[in-house]
Amino acid sequence: MNPFIQGLPKAELHLHIEGTLEPAMMFEFAKRNQIELPYASVEEIQSAYNFDDLQSFLNLYYQGSQVLKTEQDYYELTWAYLQKAADQNVRHTEIFFDPQSHTQRGIEFETVYKGIYQALVDAQAKLDMSFQLILSFLRDLSAEEAMETLKTALPYKDTIVAVGLDSAEQGNPPSKFQKVFEAAQAEGFLTVSHAGEEGPPEYIWEAINLLGVARIDHGVRSLEDPNLINYLTEKQIPLTVCPLSNVELKVFNSMAEHNLKKLLDRGLCVTVNSDDPSYFGGYVAENYQAAADALNLNQTELYQLAKNSFKASFLSPENKQKLIDELDEYVAAKSLRLTS
Ligand code: ADE
Ligand code: ZN
User: Fold this and answer.
1) What mean pLDDT value characterizes the chain?
2) For residue 70, is it within any domain?
3) How far apart are CA 272 and CA 101, in angstroms?
4) 31 in a domain, yes or no?
5) Res 1: pLDDT
6) Per-residue pLDDT reduced to its tens digit, 158-199
7) 55-79, pLDDT tens digit by residue?
8) What are the tens digits of pLDDT across the range 28-54?
9) Catalytic position from the list 169, 197, 206, 248
């Protein structure tokens, strides 16, 4: 790992907490909760992580989540991620959780929420890392089920900044959830949505026009629509791009073919994130590193990506500025001469 990347103050804005379940932890929780796993070893799990597309990943991801049962499990899962993030100088993190993948199995929303939230509060105190929590609806389930989930979350709405949309994209357009998102906005939630990961640019337009999103998660297929690129650039609607995820899920055939640099060169507010690090082979710094290696990103571009991560966050303007100042100090201390 390049020490410049490791130490770069950064925010992570696209991270599914269920996607941080490392194989060893999966075994530990399965044993503790007396759940049978279809794998005999950590190595067997790792060799199963060979994906053809988003759906082939989601099948294993939801299967993996089933080992999570108690508040302690959710706490330990989240705490383990936060420690790794702190080691990579993640100064602020915005975490997705998928309540429906747990409530569908009979786990209470409160159990999931409390474990995750307590770890985040502890990280703020012990690791000096700020956070936001984003509730994500599973788009392959019905809009009615999403609405039910929203209602369940209302008692906790002061600590959940936004709602999002994830899971199988193709055939589940943002328009399916327009009413749910309107209800969420009326309750004060911000909105984000996965769009243009596997789905077409039209889904990105729908997320903007029908769901009122503040950011697009992934959005890499935006490059197919010049009008959309112009719009995203003009409005500076951020994209939370996840390079290793896109390559592992065959959105791009290789990192060298990833369009991250093209998007950055076009002036979009692009950020780098890890999505589901335990499944895709790296946390956020490994994502910066892999993109930098394959796309020849220089330190000015890496700085820009980190700066974008703070700009695109749901922090207050004052807190954004504090972290951008910290980033500027980091760069100044390294005596870097940034090129324009
Ligand atoms: N859930 C977890 N990771 C996801 C991804 N990359 N796309 C859609 N849903 C997800
Ligand atoms: Zn995602």
Assistant:
1) 97
2) yes
3) 26
4) yes
5) 87
6) 999 999 999 999 999 999 999 999 999 999 999 999 999 999
7) 999 999 999 999 999 999 999 999 9
8) 999 999 999 999 999 999 999 999 999
9) 197
- The rounded distance, in Å, linking the Cα atoms of 315 and 303 is 19
Give, rounded to a whole angstrom, the gap between the first and last alpha carbons of the chain.
25
Beta bridge partner(s), residue 186: none
Residue 301, classified by CB atoms within 10 Å of its CB into exposed (0-12), middle (13-18) or buried (19+), is: buried
The count of C-alpha atoms lying within 13 angstroms of the C-alpha of 61, restricted to the half-sphere facing its C-beta, is: 27
Q: Is residue 338 situated within a structural domain?
A: no
Instruction: Indicate whether this model's pTM tops 0.85.
Output: yes
Give the CATH number for residue 55. Answer: 3.20.20.140
Domains of the chain: total = 1
Answer yes or no: is the C-beta of 14 below 6 A from any ligand 1 atom.
Answer: no
- Tell me how far the alpha carbon of residue 330 lies from the centroid of ligand 2, in angstroms: 29
Q: Report the alpha-carbon distance of residue 68 to residue 77 in Å, rounded.
A: 9
Amino acid of residue 283: Y
The string of pLDDT tens digits covering residues 107-124 is 999 999 999 999 999 999
Residue 339 within any structural domain of the chain: no
Task: State which residues form the domain around 274.
Answer: 3-333
Task: Please give the pLDDT value at position 293.
Answer: 98
Q: How far is the CA of 275 from the centre of ligand 1 (A)?
A: 7
Q: 5: which 2 tokens?
A: 């990347």
* Annotation marks residue 197 as catalytic: yes
Which tokens go with 73? 């499990």
